[in-house]
Specification:
294 residues, alpha+beta, five-stranded mixed sheet, 2 helices, 18 strands, elongated, Ig_I-set, Ig_sub2, Ig-like_fold, protein kinase activity, Ig-like domain-containing protein
Length: 294
């Protein structure tokens, strides 16, 4: 099995430290690495050469820590990892100063989220003395509250939005300020509005309206029932009357005269029929004697 030359998966980072404070260099190197060496300005660094320095190497992690730096500690630090296949080196700067302007190690990142999501905006910032960090939206400072919480953990500063709404979209910025200067980082936040299904409308009816409606329905049902019963009674009575009339002889009704004024013929008939005439007397009349002609 062949051995590969070491590589740094996490190289050293430059450090700005206030005089009297601690300064730490860290690097992660691939294994196997049988030997790790530290250098300052090209010279091999040891605890004897730099009093108070702490050096360690475990599980591929190389660490150099100076508990209290002075101006004399400023310089160029390097770490070198060596094995049988080769070597690798990582280098960074140490600046010891009384003050240092703010500097962003991690800047704001633009993001797009859905409505109702939790949003976290993070930055890492250094400075000597420690900078004052403020968050802004569209130029207006954000005050820490239940909805917008501003958190700090060492050099990590965070703006936590508990529940994002479309009106929270916009340009967010963070400023870090101290006596040596000022630094700003800006990003965009877009909160996408989710499609909300149309709500079903409900008709709210009061108790009095419900009672009145029920009473009206009961009255209508009673009225319909009464009408049905009355109709049935009428039908029964009609059937009985029909049966009774069927057993009776209808009375003879004389025909009505076609005209109110009696005609002459009818009057004569009535007079003739109403009077009894006596027969005419028979008279015997002698025939006249003819006169002789002279």
């Amino acid at each position: 099995m062949s051995t590969q030359a070491p590589t740094f998966t996490q190289p050293l980072q430059s450090v700005v430290a206030l005089e009297g404070s601690a300064a730490t260099f860290e690097a992660q190197v691939s294994s196997p690495v049988p030997e790790v060496s530290w250098f300052r300005d090209g010279q091999v660094l040891s605890a004897a050469a730099l009093p108070g320095v702490q050096i360690s190497f475990s599980d591929g992690r190389a660490v150099l820590r100076i508990p209290a730096v002075t101006a004399a500690h400023s310089g160029r630090f390097s770490v070198r990892a060596t094995n049988g296949a080769g070597q690798a080196t990582s280098t960074a700067e140490l600046l010891v100063t009384e003050t240092a302007p703010p500097s962003f190690l991690q800047r704001l990142q633009s993001s797009t989220v859905r409505q109702g999501s939790q949003v976290r905006l993070d930055v890492r910032v250094t400075g000597i003395p420690a900078p004052v960090v403020k968050f802004y939206r569209e130029g207006a400072e954000i005050q820490s509250s239940a909805d917008f919480r501003i958190l700090q953990d060492g050099d990590l500063y965070s703006l936590l939005i508990a529940e994002a709404f479309p009106e929270d979209s916009g340009t967010y910025s963070v400023t870090a300020t101290n006596s040596s200067g000022r630094a700003t980082s800006t990003a965009e936040l877009l909160v996408q509005e989710e499609a909300v299904p149309a709500k079903k409308t409900k008709t709210v009816i009061s108790t009095s309206q419900i009672s009145q409606s029920r009473q009206t329905r009961v009255e209508k049902r009673m009225e319909a029932s009464f009408q049905a019963s009355a109709m049935m009674q009428m039908q029964v009575e009609g059937a009985e009357l029909t049966q009774q009339l069927a057993h009776k002889t209808p009375p003879r009704v004389p025909p009505k005269p076609t005209s109110k004024s009696p005609t002459q013929h009818s009057l004569v008939a009535k007079v003739t029929g109403g009077r009894q005439q006596s027969p005419s007397p028979v008279r015997h009349v002698k025939a006249p004697t003819p006169t002789p002609v002279r």
